[in-house]
Amino acid sequence: MGRFIFISTREHDLAASDEVRGVLAASGLPTDALRVIRLDREPLGEIAALGLEHCPGVILGGSPFNTSEDPILKSDLQLRCESDLSRLLDVLVHDDFPFLGACYGVGTLGTHQGALIDRRYGEPVGTSHIRLTTQGQSDPLLTGLPTEFDAFVGHKEAVSRLPSTAILLAESTACPVQMFRVKTNLYATQFHPELDPQGLAQRILIYRDAGYFPPHEAQRLHDEALSARVQWPALVLGNFVQRYGPSV
């Protein structure tokens, strides 16, 4: 069986590399079982050339990009990444191909399916208390998770309205769409299943001037991240790998 594909849109090298570390740790994948594609460095190219027929599944990491941003304010890089991901999702959704998008996946898969993405339900950097819906409690990617758990979040935009093609799997009081599924095999989470306390603490320092929080709060948020007890979300990535790559 071929390698899982992980797609990153982070320009900051330390953030990009630590995200890969988090994905490997949470999923249990060995390094040689994950093919990393940095969209910030080069275009995706022809979808047919990706070799999806040999790939168990595609994972999309988080991003400083916001899909709901006014197109006039988007950089050329963001516009190119969005175009590449839209072309990829055309194929993945058509084929019901295994896909898991973390945080930025909500904006990309949601936009592709016609969800309303705006800034109504953004959440500050830190933890959010997640609740599984009835459908979520029986979904294979959420096997082993309790019906309520804490997860790391930090996002400016979120889903305000899901399309009829999506099934809500998890929610929270502050953000009503924390996870959804399209068809049988395409998933997106608003929370970060790949983040551990050290990863979030590092990301807080990297993005301290990116508008997620006042810069003077960075140290406090960093310290709170290191002391947080977040353990369950990693199972989402582990379940994804076990479901679609059982031989790994």
TrEMBL record:
Keyword annotations from UniProtKB, A to Z: Glutamine amidotransferase
UniProt cross-references to CDD domains, sorted A to Z: GATase1_1 (cd01741)
Listed InterPro entries: ChyE-like (IPR044992), Class_I_gatase-like (IPR029062), GATASE (IPR017926)
Segments forming domain Glutamine amidotransferase: 46-200
Coiled coil start-end: none
A family per Pfam: GATase
Superkingdom as given in the UniProt entry: Bacteria
Entry keyword Heme: no
Protein name: Glutamine amidotransferase
Origin species: Paeniglutamicibacter terrestris
